[in-house]
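Box 3.1 A note on notation
Throughout this textbook, protein chains are presented in two layers. The first layer is the amino acid sequence; the second is a token string describing backbone geometry. Keep the layers aligned when reading.
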Amino acid sequence: MRVLILGAAAGGGLPQWNCGCPNCVSARSGDIEPQSQSSVAVSADGESWVVLNASPDIRTQLLAAEPLYPGAIRGTPVSAVVLTNGDIDHIAGLLILREKTAFDVYATGEILGVLSENAVFGVLDPDHVVQKKMRIGKTFEPAEGLSITPYNVPGKVPLYQEKGDVDTALISENTIGLEVKANGKTMQYVPGCAMLTKTIKERFASSDQLLFDGTVWQNDEMKTTSTGIKTGRRMGHIPISGDDGSLAQLADVQGPAKTYIHINNTNPIWNPKSPERRALKDAGWSIAYDGMEIVL
């Protein structure tokens, strides 16, 4: 299985257009490599590719990924796009892919409802772009030799659907993980997760590669960096650090190579000289970056 990290950052990318936090300043000056918004491409044969989440940066990401170049006057090696939730940073890129080239869109019923309720997604011509409903726990094959099984992870509804009190660790079709298999190898892709469960950890342990939610280092990171007021958990993301953070909770999961993805612009792990980056390295984790390739 070939895995291309098209984008490694959380919503807004690094730097964010309106942010002057230390990481964004360093990204503008070249001290930290800029990163686009979270998206991944996977393939069983290097010929047919499936994109996991279509970020708003998808055009630039496809231009930077030679294996995804068109092989004809009109066409694409991308056979499908698979969505893990309805967040803007995961669905807005579909609007860029409107040029009447055939591919399938796989999503849960909840997320397909988001697309159907918003008229702007009508630019995806149904004669070319077929929307297909994923069912939790049911395996499908979006490309030859590549199978995907969606499963529930705790999360919340997209920001634009929030009303009143929000259940940030809801078990529903709004937030899912993907188990991707090809040629005897297994990858878990979970760019958003509010809470880890025994079942999820057991699934991770039997895999070869884990791409997991690394949005914030500490729960109150937005407040301490003066960039916002919401905690990581309020945004539906488990923080990396702390006794109940993902780093500690996944320490006993020894099966897969472990990589953080969907990393917020404020997260100190972006700084290669930070103690937080060293802590991840010492714990056996790597950090996704734009253009990274993983071969399983």
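The chain has a mean pLDDT of 95. The chain has one domain: 2-295.
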